[in-house]
Amino acid sequence: LRVSAKAVYSKYSIEPASPINFGAMIKGTKKTQTVMLENKGILNFKFRIHQAPKDAPALQGERSKQEESAPSATKSSMPRKSSISTQAHLNLGMFTVSPCSGSIAPFGQQKITVECLAGPEGICEEQLYIDITGR
User: Could you tell me which of 59, 83, 107, 116 has the fewest CB atoms within 10 Å of its CB?
Assistant: First the structure.
């Protein structure tokens, strides 16, 4: 009797690299950017997007003064425990992210839309976590 198994883990890529910067916007206007989440492994995986807790450490990196004055949404693949969410989109201040959960087949892709509706004058920045099962 011959028995064999192969242990694997979820392999993925997230493009573009963080942060997403919408630049300067006129109040009341809307811009959309996309993030591509790709399954580079041989197993299905599920993903969920969450808002980072306010006390979470910010992602490291240098930004120019121009970027600091523009609305931006930041993403990360750091783990965070949360209850299961069935909502199709996630509202975070001026930003709306959709879909915020789903399943991706092996070698498949999921386009995630981040929309910014410019609100009151000032800077708006949010940090997101992308949880991927089995990573």
Answer: 83
The closest of 127, 119, 115, 118 to 35, measured between CA atoms, is 115
pLDDT tens, residue by residue, 25-80 = 999 999 999 999 999 999 899 999 998 887 766 554 433 333 333 445 544 433 33
Query: Can you give the residue range of the structural domain that contains 125?
Result: 18-52+84-134
Residue 66 confidence (pLDDT): 35
Q: What is the CATH number of the domain that holds 32?
A: 2.60.40.10
Please give the Cα distance from 15 to 34 (Å, whole number).
9
Pairing verdict, β 45-51 and 101-104: antiparallel
Q: Tally the domains of the chain.
A: 1
Torsion, CA 131, CA 111, CA 23, CA 48, rounded to 10: -20
